[in-house]
Amino acid sequence: MVEELKNHINGEWVSSSTDQYVDVINPATTKMIGKTPMSTTKEVEEAIQTAKESFWEWRSTPPVERARYLFKLQNLIEENYDRLSEAVVEENGKNIKSARAEVQRALENVEVAAGIPSLVQGYNSEDIARGIDEKAIKQPMGVFTCIVPFNFPAMIPFWFVPYAIATGNTYIIKPSEKVPYTAQILMELIEEAGIPEGVVNLVHGGKEVSTTLLESDDIEGVSFVGSTPVAKKVYTKAAMEGKRAQCQGGACNFITVMPDANLEAAKSNIFSSFFACAGQRCLAGQNLVAVGDETYDQLKEMVVEQVPNIKVGYGLDEGVEMGPLITAKAKESILSRIDEAIDQGAKVLVDGRDIEVEGYEDGHFIGPVVLTGDIHDLDIVHEEIFGPVMNLIKVDTFEEARDLINSNNYGNAANIYTQSGKWARKFAYEVEGGNIGINIGVPAPVPHFPFSGMKDSFFGDLHAQGRDVIDFYTEKKIVIERYL
User: Fold this and answer.
1) Mean pLDDT of 91-96
2) With the C-alpha atoms ordered 325, 330, 331, 333, is the resulting torsion angle positive or negative?
3) One domain for residues 84 and 190
4) Catalytic member of 146, 247, 277, 282
5) In this predicted structure, what is the pLDDT of residue 129?
6) Which of 88, 270, 348, 379 is most buried as measured by Cβ atoms within 10 A of its Cβ?
7) Neighbours of 211 (CB within 10 A)
8) For residue 348, what is the DSSP state?
9) Beta-strand relationship, 458-460 and 369-372
10) Is 252 a catalytic residue?
């Protein structure tokens, strides 16, 4: 019997009263592994009310005590490392190595959030005038929520949840309906860690749940990760409702290779950026920009020889480097965009469109695809693909590469491969991207740095992770005092 998932409200697992469910499908086997409830407005409002009622008790809990719960949660994640990693593979499709890396990053966010007691301090100033002192206090605000995507079901919620509760707020998680199981396990571990009832709640659902959260007067702020069109809508709606918002949008990332790059050392790093997680991550490479004819020829030869050897399959099988797309619809969309680019003149260097994975013939698989030619102006170069497609582009100069990157509407990540400090510094200084990689294929910030983003890749002022997220979840109160 297929499991119907439950919400977690006020410390209890509660079945939804809805009659609407979304099937949870393993994208490699295409077998149904569960059903996600499209929770009702009433159920969302119950979660909000619970979080609101739990706030003052949690807010008055000393930060060092809150941190102790996070240390317990850290230990529980470590104990359930394999269980979480395998859940990510089952519902998301990425290979086990990538899933383990994701769980590790979620764990690291808990570790950093446990240091909140030393990071959340305000500041004092004596004698701003004769006999008058002034101080700033950072205080929690109330109930926050996150609306998160399918591609990192363990990591992305933990960009937010540990920091929000460490700073004294209460929380509601709204996971993607496509990948609810990882969130369920995380919620079980939060409960096992002893975090008081109502401090963290989990509500499944779709657009109606998100809208209810955004429109509630009792929600102080929202964290969102998803496509740029939806990120814009969420940010606009949150602003209209007077809420804080940090909304991570889409990406179209460029990797530039200079003539002095050490390609032999870099090749596996480059290929992983494009094809690990089947390209379904916001820091994935999309466009490989070769500076100069010789660099282009070397990259072309390397790609043709080695990319077809990337092992595609079910993420739990030994040696698999790339899994399936999340849904059949996603696969169809990417195939359609590849066909459109070919019709517009793109040349196919590597063609993985017709790949068949033995034993998983119905899976949502596309093998690696590499396009080249006079493609500088094609949509497939300038719009987010979110799939295993590499566009190999030749330019003549560093400046031409820089201008191509900066002409793009997105600004999530940009990378350069070079042995020159000059080119590395110019790239970091002049390129419009929030996360810059120097000889790094996926420039993912560690948790004590903010996860940045520019232009159409981010809407808001304070990013996830790092000190940014502490400021996002707290309000500064200024106290000016004199005793007579």
Assistant:
1) 97
2) negative
3) yes
4) 282
5) 85
6) 88
7) 15
8) E
9) unpaired
10) no
